[in-house]
Amino acid sequence: MQDSPKLFDQMNARSREVFQRVVEGYLESGEPIGSRTLTRTLSEKVSAATVRNVMQDLEYLGLLNAPHASAGRVPTETGLRLFVDGLLEVRDLDSADRSKIDATLGSNSDDTGTLLDRVGAALSGVTHGASLVLTPKHEAPIRHIEFVSLAQNRALVVLVFADGHVENRVFTPPPGLTPSAMREAANFLNALAEGRTLSEMRREMTHDIETRRREIDSLAHELVKSGIAVWDEEGDRAERLIVRGRANLLGEEADPADIDRIRTLFDDLERKRDIAEFLELTEDGEGVRIFIGSENKLFSLSGSSLVVSPYMNADRKIVGAVGVIGPTRLNYGRIVPIVDYTAQLVGKLLSDRK
Question: Which CATH class is domain 142-227?
Fold first, then answer.
């Protein structure tokens, strides 16, 4: 794929305008845009034959594609990326959209999980797409860790945080783990904690495992991996993915192929365990990021786009993310400010709880 500057260099003013009109028309209608339609909207009076020649050149550059035998064209993923990077006009947040989001998130009295569930519902309702919300992990320093055997293949870890927060998590211990080994592992972890958060402990343990693997008791090592380093148990409320609005992508007029792609998308979401990947999508900056089709490996088979933005806590640390999924024909100019505003609002609401 060529980068945007090189592609722009190969386009003159006429081809850029034709390209922009094709993409804008496609995003609005979802239909291929023909040369006769374009001749009525271009600033320069040219023939339909001239426009067809320009569209063929744009197709050669990999920016447009003819999906059927018709003369109409639609943008490719490369074309959409070029449009988003260089030609997209992001408008101000519509006052009606702002009011709907504010009304849904107006109360800050519920627990964090309920608040963020409302965020997902608000985003889905306002954008008529599917929403994603990655909830924050509890990042207070650890005061005490204790393991309790529940059954032969089930155990409980009790986490007591310095701020008084207590969490209980059920996990599957390594086969043959004895209660005495659990106590030794807990003693090891409590000595390691020393006011560290779970993230800091994981980094420290990873370093120790890499540099002093033989010095760490193998059972404790396995317990660390099973009980602390993996937070993917079903029902875990400390870090979870909230998905809302599946029905919005399965409208009555949806094409059967589109329905299959959307089902694939949600199957991917339901199978996805390492949901922290959504935070990784936002690491390069604070603003909104747009992933089109195969640019996002999680949704690569579904032909969807993801507009995502991180939100931060009072310490300006990224702790979660909100986003909207839809077809590549998203109204990016409208969706981007909605996602951006929602992320900022969530960050403020969470910071005000401190």
Answer: alpha beta
